[in-house]
Automatic annotation (TrEMBL):
Membrane topology label: Multi-pass membrane protein
The protein's name in its UniProt record: G-protein coupled receptors family 1 profile domain-containing protein
Family matches, as Pfam families: 7tm_4 (PF13853)
InterPro entries according to UniProt: GPCR_Rhodpsn, GPCR_Rhodpsn_7TM, Olfact_rcpt, Olfactory_GPCR
Taxonomic classification: Eukaryota, Metazoa, Chordata, Craniata, Vertebrata
Subcellular locations according to the entry: Cell membrane
Keyword Transmembrane: yes
Major site of localization recorded for this protein: membrane
Amino acid sequence: FSLPMAWMNQTLVTEFFVQGFSEAPHLRFLFFFLFLSLYTVALSGNILIFVTISFNSTLHTPMYFFLVNLAVVDVLCTSTILPKLLENMMGRKTISFAGCMAQLYFFTWSLGAELLLFTAMAYDRYVAICHPLHYSTMMSKKVCLLLSTGVWSISILNTSINSSLMFRLSFCHSNVVNHFFCEIPPLLKLSCTPTYLNETMAFTADVFLAVGNFIITMLSYACIISSILKIRTTEGKKRAFSTCSSHLIVVSMYYSTVIYTYIRPSSSYSLDKDKIVSVIYTSVAPTLNPLIYTLRNKEVKAGLKKVFSFFKR
């Protein structure tokens, strides 16, 4: 009895050596402080949003329901990537094969869920502004649960397929990951077996999840802006445009970086540049989301005061 050659080759790699974000020794503590700060703000901000919305019945509306889902996704994303990155900066640069695949699975899961949630949130705002009289029907509790179930189910299906395809590869050339975490592009670079199927799946998923959802989101906001322009008061227009512009900046930044990373063939990857791009959707966006979507909101501020006053008792 003999094992298939691909499996034999794959089992040669029991752990990966992750190069990290920067190999410059004099920048190590600076980057450690930077990523520790990002993780602390992202974790505390998203947990605070989750608690505030969950314990305030006045915030139990479709918009805040999706924001709770976004907070969960952001905690999942940052907790999958940043603790291991901080450990890497402290000197432990290895990760087991199983740990690497787990990191890939949970990161890809959170990535897909975030893209889909942006679309669900854009649809919610579209209904609220363009069809306010039908909002309670079009965004009923049942519809929100269906949208949420779809977001998590599709993202789980996507990451399950991509992760399963990664297990079919053999890693026998090198175990050095030129990145700061286990992501699809740098891992494909290490494979000594054909990666065409993996690249095709990653490309297809990116077209569907990133490009497709980005187009839907932009169309939703085109309709929203058209409706805003019909508002008579200047103050009303400014308030609505302020909300839209903040959302569009984050969405555009997030989508553009994901599309840039995943929609190219592996031969064109520039992993050193990709590290900087990856920071945006793994660290910066999850940190900014609570600040942009909720902490500037008067209703959320009122909810936060209730939460703080409760803990002061």
